[in-house]
Amino acid sequence: xxxxxxxxxxxxxxxxxxxxxxxxxxxxxxxxxxxxxxxxxxxxxxxxxxxxxxxxxxxxxxxxxxxxxxxxxxxxxxxxxxxxxxxxxxxxxxxxxxxxxxxxxxxxxxxxxxxxxxxxxxxxxxxxxxxxxxxxxxxxxxxxxxxxxxxxxxxxxxxxxxxxxxxxxxxxxxxxxxxxxxxxxxxxxxxxxxxxxxxxxxxxxxxxxxxxxxxxxxxxxxxxxxxxxxxxxxxxxxxxxxxxxxxxxxxxxxxxxxxxxxxxxxxxxxxxxxxxxxxxxxxxxxxxxxxxxxxxxxxxxxxxxxxxxxxxxxxxxxxxxxxxxxxxxxxxxxxxxxxxxxxxxxxxxxxxxxxxxxxxxxxxxxxxxxxxxxxxxxxxxxxxxxxxxxxxxxxxxxxxxxxxxxxxxxxxxxxxxxxxxxxxxxxxxxxxxxxxxxxxxxxxx
Length: 445
Hints:
Structural class: alpha/beta
CATH topology of the largest domain: D-Maltodextrin-Binding Protein, domain 2
Distance between the termini: 46 Å
Number of strands: 14
Number of domains: 2
Helix content: 40-55%
Radius of gyration: 22 Å
């Protein structure tokens, strides 16, 4: 708690400095275009910061409006954004927001429709526009999209006689077991079959939702009902618990995205579940698995494949003193021209469907085809729109329940039944124990 409060204090101090600097400007200077401030905790590395600074320079060159980046910690992203917005401060002007935040922050964000031409909005994935629309207001414009994918060692599949990655979860278990045993027999004692994100965090919600939806267990909250206490969900939770210590390291129950990637990049795993933009790090020149891996949709269950929707968008604070210029920046960053330029080299998946048919984009980012396949056939969304400001508590209850199963503190049946009660009381929604016709998928034509 002390660390979190310290981080928030640092942000508040930075905002104070910015405001003080603006207040101390001489009033007799000629009127000039404002400087727009932006907060985005997604740029922890030097390369990302350089890439975004280049975008800001191009924007300033085209519009005359400069951009100032507000420093921010990578952790506590939502807490930082909420505190700044709820304080009604005039900076930052622009916020990067996650796909699960719109309903949580909407009251503090402007409607972008008056500032962005309808044609440009229509160029985006309709499902993303719907996701960032709250009560008819477009509160953010998508910047990049991501989904859960299966990363596989192509060289190891060939070595052990497999022509393709596993198509089902059952195949994944069998192939991972065989490759793990073979690599260990050759002296690689720390080699594992499958790594993923099992820490008590939002990442576990995403992983478990994929298991659950792919087997027909629903998407936690769906059609006005709580959908967790059913045979499919119980079965997949128990299956994942079986992975721990067998094809997945015991420590996977503490893994976040970077932990899984580090194990993968060290050449110590045959398969990895991670976000699509992890491809950039895995394929980097310094990566030890560069040229040795492929990606594909996650394995199928009885209901098909499922990949959790992720990604970011840019929004304008309702308290900004410069909403027009801030909206100009959002429109620039998220528009077709800038997305096309970014994707001429390896980049996060774009949010404009037409670019997925562009040859130069696909040449630089071959994994985009897999992202599109998941987007059209097996995308599953977390229930953030249905739960609104209750989503953080909903997700926490969900991943705590799953984690208790993974660490064998509770059986899957007991955890599912208790979670159903907790979520019903929390949201006021009825439970639905029997699942027959709801896949949990969000499909687009």
